[in-house]
Amino acid sequence: MSGQIDMALHAPARLQIAAMLARADEVEFATIREVTDVSDSVLSKHLTALADAGYVKIVKAPRDGRQRTWASLTRTGRSAFAAHMEALRALAAAAEEAVATR
Asked: Does the pLDDT of residue 1 top 70, yes or no?
């Protein structure tokens, strides 16, 4: 198996967040919360962990009279997500091969 599973992206909610951010320039906190179906505090902890790893950039700015939070993947985050996905694909291929030979 090539590549390593990235533990910063391994948690299902973090993987889901990274997948969502990989398809957009930036996504609002509320949208991420709705898609991941987690509480504000849980999402905040996941985003902080990803930001601490250098994978996510967080921007807070007023919009429509309220403070809004936006997240985006950094260049490092995009590379880490791509490598993590490749490691998952390799793992799945190895598992399929093992099952097929039984």
From this structure: no
